[in-house]
Amino acid sequence: MSHFAVVREAGPAWTEGKGAFEQPAVADHAAFMSALADEGFVLVAGPLDGSEHSRIRVLLIVDAASEPEVHRRLADDPWEMTGRLETVRVESWNVITGGQRLSSLQTGPRRTGQSKEER
Predict the structure, then answer these.
(1) Are 69 and 3 in contact (CB under 8 A)?
(2) What is the pLDDT of residues 70-118, one digit of tens each?
(3) Is 70 a domain residue?
(4) In terms of residue numbers, what domain contains 44?
(5) At a CB cut-off of 8 Å and minimum separation 6, what does 95 contact?
(6) Residue 17 placed within a domain
(7) Disulfide check for 57: which of 18, 41, 51, 93 has CB 3.0–4.6 Å away?
(8) Which CATH number goes with the domain that contains 18?
(9) Can you tell me the distance from the alpha carbon of 10 to that of 87, in angstroms, rounded to the nearest whole number?
(10) CB half-sphere exposure, 69, CA atoms < 13 A
(11) pTM of the model
(12) Please, are residues 63 and 104 in contact by the beta-carbon 8 Å criterion?
């Protein structure tokens, strides 16, 4: 598996004037992201520069076999399916320093690169 840095941003269906926790279907999105973290796919994630209070921008570090897997897995996010959130950038990330700390985050069950529904 490889690490990828992923940037996601508010999409065209984002409700203007509301923060992330006031958006429709926030519980569905949160449950989806928590499941990806529990599986060990998402290692860390969070909003950038206080953007959770307006048009959100998020950074994720994920563990995946390939960039297409990253896009495929995130496409199942309820917010991405409705256009509330968009994956705008996926880049391979080479860990130079702190890799042992990152490895300690990978405690989820061993993945096969398949979504939960495909298993």
Answers:
(1) no
(2) 999 999 999 999 999 999 999 999 888 877 777 776 654 544 444 444 4
(3) yes
(4) 2-107
(5) 3, 102
(6) yes
(7) 51
(8) 3.30.70.1060
(9) 9
(10) 19
(11) 0.84
(12) no
Structure tokens at 87: 């994956």
Residue 118 lies inside a defined structural domain of this protein: no
45, 37 contact by CB (below 8 A): yes
Please state the domain count of the chain.
1
For residue 116, tell me if it sits in a domain: no
Q: How far apart are CA 5 and CA 11, in angstroms?
A: 19
Q: DSSP secondary structure string, 70-83? A: HHHHHTT-HHHHTT
